[in-house]
């Protein structure tokens, strides 16, 4: 639950934002499972804890800052309703635990899930009712899953999805700001978005 600072610079601007060291989980330090969920549920939890979801750029920057860069473990076929069965969530979670043996699991960790992300590919009102995902960044820095805003409805989740919490309070050039104000700033948005000003900021 102890968030970790990620510092990003773009020309003369600098932002520090706090992120959960791993994906949202259920349980305690000794017995927990990383819990995939659809973006509507994720947004409700983010709102409750004054957080937001990341952009594609933030996912990449978080990966770069991570102490533990884990190798993605795609399950493979069948690509059917078995994708979102409970047994996949538990089995995949254990495989991630195995990768973390001997490592500090409370340090910033990335690579092991696809992120549910914010993107301008979804309109502010999201009339298509889709979820955007991105990630499974490999050790070479390339994602297995490029930005995908169109394949799944916003009620969809499967074992491969992870929810990363980002605190809404950030430090920009030494000043406290809300991340929504950074999203909407024509200059500062480059610190957190590779799509310019972010118009889609919540599900």
Strand and helix layout:
Layout: E1 4-10, E2 13-19, E3 25-28, E4 31-34, H1 39-48, E5 51-52, H2 56-65, E6 68-69, H3 86-100, E7 109-110, E8 114-116, E9 130-137, E10 143-153, E11 161-162, E12 166-167, E13 169-172, E14 175-178, H4 179-183
Parallel strand pairs: 6-7, 8-11
Antiparallel strand pairs: 1-2, 2-13, 3-4, 5-12, 8-9, 9-10, 13-14
Task: Give a structural overview.
With 203 residues, the protein is an alpha+beta fold. The protein has 4 helices and 14 strands. It has helices spanning 39-48, 56-65, 86-100, 179-183; strands spanning 4-10, 13-19, 25-28, 31-34, 51-52, 68-69, 109-110, 114-116, 130-137, 143-153, 161-162, 166-167, 169-172, 175-178. It has a 4-stranded antiparallel β-sheet with strand order 1-2-13-14. A 4-stranded mixed β-sheet has the order 10-9-8-11, with helices on one face. Strand 1 and strand 2 form a beta hairpin. The radius of gyration is 16 Å and the shape is globular. The two termini are 23 Å apart. The relative contact order is 0.24.
Give structural attributes.
14 strands, alpha+beta, 4 helices, 20% helix, four-stranded mixed beta sheet
- Indicate the mean pLDDT: 95
User: How would you classify the quaternary structure?
Assistant: single chain
Structural class: alpha+beta
Low-confidence regions? none
The helix fraction, in percent, is 10-25%
The best one-word shape is globular
* Beta-strand share of residues: 25-35%
Q: How many beta-strand elements? A: 14
Instruction: Give the SSE string.
Output: EEEEHEHEHEEEEEEEEH
Q: How would you characterize the largest beta sheet?
A: 4 strands, antiparallel
Across the major sheet, the strand order is 1-2-13-14
Q: Separation of termini?
A: 23 Å
Radius of gyration: 16 Å
DSSP helix count? 4
């Amino acid at each position: 639950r102890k968030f970790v600072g990620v510092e990003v610079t773009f020309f003369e601007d600098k932002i520090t934002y706090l992120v959960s060291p791993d994906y949202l989980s259920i349980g305690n330090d000794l017995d927990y499972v990383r819990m995939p969920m659809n973006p509507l549920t994720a947004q409700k939890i983010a709102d409750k804890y004054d957080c937001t979801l990341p952009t594609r750029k933030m996912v990449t920057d978080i990966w770069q800052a991570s102490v533990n860069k884990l190798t993605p473990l795609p399950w493979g076929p069948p690509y059917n309703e078995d994708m979102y069965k409970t047994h996949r969530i538990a089995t995949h979670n254990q495989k991630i635990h195995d990768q973390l043996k001997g490592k500090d699991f409370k340090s910033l960790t990335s690579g092991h899930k696809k992120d549910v992300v914010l993107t301008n590919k979804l309109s502010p009102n999201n009339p298509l009712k889709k979820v955007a995902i991105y990630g499974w960044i490999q050790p070479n820095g390339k994602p297995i899953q490029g930005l995908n805003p169109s394949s799944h409805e916003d009620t969809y989740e499967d074992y491969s999805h992870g929810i990363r919490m980002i605190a809404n309070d950030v430090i920009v050039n030494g000043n406290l700001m809300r991340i929504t104000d950074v999203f909407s700033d024509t200059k500062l948005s480059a610190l957190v978005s590779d799509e310019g000003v972010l118009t889609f900021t919540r599900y």
